[in-house]
Amino acid sequence: MKRKYLNPALILLILFVTSLAGKAYAGLIVGEHYTDASGTAWEYVGSYDLAQGPGWQDVNREAELKPYNGLEAAELLFGVLDAGNEYAISSNVFRESETYEVNHLAWYDGVISYIHEKSESLAADKHNDGLYNVEGDFSAYISDRGVVGEHINHVFKTVDLPEPSTLMIFILALAGLAARRFKLS
To answer: What are the extents of the domains in the chain?
Structure first.
């Protein structure tokens, strides 16, 4: 008679413990996290406006500005990350998007060009002269043609996912032992 109630009770215990194990792992992740197409987890750092960068020509009509790609602008504005961490840029409009996907694109303004989205890590200085002054140079942080508030680059950094907790490993071991017990019966 006791064995009749023991197996269903054990199954319920295993299901309950398994659901707790999943929550124990997911509960360690705190804050706003997003993903990209490859499933990498990113944490939101902040944003910068393409048009709020330095003016492309000073009062003497000389252009002495360095072109920045999206990642270089993020390092300039938010600081260099520790080894093993990296930035990602997204040009998505997050207040209107439901997917919140990091697309690895940034808004750029180009010399004798227009505003458009390109790779976050493109070679911004086409001629390697260190200046934003020749056709083919792009910058993700410059006041040239952009209108403030129109082209926002959102910055993310990699998320260190926590390792499974000891409790979760213990619970999985118990579930394995219980499953073995059912096979032997």
So the answer is: 2-21+163-184, 33-158
